[in-house]
Amino acid sequence: MCVTDDAANPDPVTPVRISHHVDEIWEDHPGGTLQEFYNFLIYEFEVAGAVFRARAYADDFNRVTLYGPFARAGEAPAATNPEAEAQVTAYLERRFGEVRRQPPV
To answer: Do 5 and 97 contact (CB within 8 A), yes or no?
Structure first.
C-alpha cells in the first residue's frame, strides 16, 4: 500500500466514509463449519451528485476495485462523469498499487 502526504498536491476528493466489513459463509446445518471468510474495507465517495464505492480485501491491500457511479438516491447507475471518476481514481491510485474498475450493472 502506498500512501503519500503531499501538501502541495492534495487529493481532489476524499471518501465521505470508510467502513470495515466481515462476511462469513457457514455450512447450512447445525454445527456447520466456516466455508468462506471475507475481510474488507469499503471506501465511499460522493462527487458531483454521484456515489462511487471502492472495495479492498485485507488479504491483498495492494489492490482495490472501484464501482459506480451510482445515483445518490439509490443503487441505480448514474450518468457517467469522467471528471468525478478521475478524481476518485486519483485518490485510490495514491494508496493502492492496482485500481480495478467494475462498472455498475
So the answer is: no
User: Which candidate, 74, 95, 70, 98, places its Cα nearest to that of 85?
Assistant: 70
3-state SS of 36-94? EEEEEEEEEEEECCEEEEEEEEHHHCCEEEEEEEEECCCCCECCCCHHHHHHHHHHHHC
Instruction: Please give the single-letter amino acid code of residue 60.
Output: D
Neighbouring CB atoms inside 10 A of 11's CB total: 15
Backbone angles phi, psi at 47, to 5 degrees: -135, 125
> Distance (Å, rounded) from C-alpha 39 to C-alpha 30?
24
pLDDT value at residue 104: 60
User: Over the stretch 38-47, which tens digit does the pLDDT of each residue have?
Assistant: 999 999 999 9
Task: Flag whether the pTM goes above 0.85.
Answer: no
